[in-house]
Design goal:
The chain is α/β, with parallel strands linked by helices and about 200 residues long. Helix content is about 30%, strand content about 20%. Helix 1 packs across helix 4.
C-alpha cells in the first residue's frame, strides 16, 4: 500500500471574506479549518498544514485538536498560493501521493477522500494526476503522484498546482463523485450556512 498524504494550504489572506475565514464558525460549531481537518485526518494517513508566518495561535489550535497533524509556516505565503505549495512540498517527500487540499473546503465528505485514495492506489502510477468531478466540473482535492514533487517545489505566484495540471494533460484521470462538497469553498460569510 502506497503512502498518500494531504498537503493543506491554509495561508491565504481571506480578502473576500473580510476576516480570517479559517477561524469562522460553521453550523456544526467547528471553525472552517477544524471541520476541514476533521475530514482530512479521517481520510489520510498523513496531513501537513501550511500556515502564514505569524499564525502561532492557529498552529497551537491545530497541534491541540489534531496532534497527528504536522504544521509549518511559509514566510513567503503573502506572495501567493504557489509559494505555500512549494514550501509544503518539502514535507511530502516520503509520500507516494500528494493530495493538494484547501483549508476553506470543509464540506468534502470523508467517503469522497477515501474513494480518491482508492482510485490512486489502483492506478499504481507515480505520474498520475487524479481529479474528482461533480456533474462534469472538476473539484478538489487533486491528488498527484510523487513524480510531481520537484515541479511543486518550484512553483511561485498565485496559480498553485494548476500549472502542473495544464502541463501534463495526458496524465490526468478523473472520477465522478456525487459529493457537491468538492466544489464548495468558503469565500464569503454567506457560504458558512451552506447545507449539503
Amino acid at each position: 500500500m502506497r503512502s498518500v498524504g494531504a498537503l493543506v494550504l491554509a495561508a491565504g489572506l481571506s480578502r473576500r471574506f473580510g476576516t480570517d475565514k479559517r477561524r469562522a464558525l460553521l453550523p456544526s460549531g467547528q471553525s472552517v479549518i477544524e471541520e476541514t481537518l476533521t475530514h482530512l485526518t479521517k481520510g489520510f494517513s498523513h496531513v501537513h498544514v501550511v500556515l502564514r508566518e505569524e499564525d502561532d495561535e492557529l498552529h497551537e489550535l491545530i497541534r491541540t485538536r489534531f496532534p497527528e497533524t504536522t504544521v509549518s509556516h511559509c514566510p513567503t505565503a503573502h506572495l501567493g498560493m504557489g509559494h505555500s505549495l512549494a514550501h509544503g512540498a518539502q514535507f511530502a517527500v516520503s509520500w507516494d501521493g500528494i493530495a493538494i487540499c484547501l483549508a476553506d473546503m470543509p464540506y468534502t465528505r470523508v467517503a469522497t477522500l477515501e474513494t480518491l485514495i482508492d482510485h490512486f492506489q489502483s492506478l499504481n502510477d507515480e505520474r498520475a494526476i487524479l481529479i474528482p468531478t461533480f456533474h462534469g466540473d472538476r473539484g478538489h482535492p487533486v491528488l498527484f503522484g510523487r513524480d510531481y514533487l520537484q515541479d511543486m517545489a518550484q512553483l511561485t505566484g498565485d496559480q498553485g498546482a494548476r500549472r502542473i495540471i495544464e502541463t501534463h494533460p495526458e496524465c490526468i484521470h478523473t472520477f465522478t463523485s456525487e459529493d457537491a462538497g468538492i466544489l464548495r469553498d468558503i469565500d464569503r460569510p454567506d457560504d458558512l450556512d451552506s447545507t449539503d
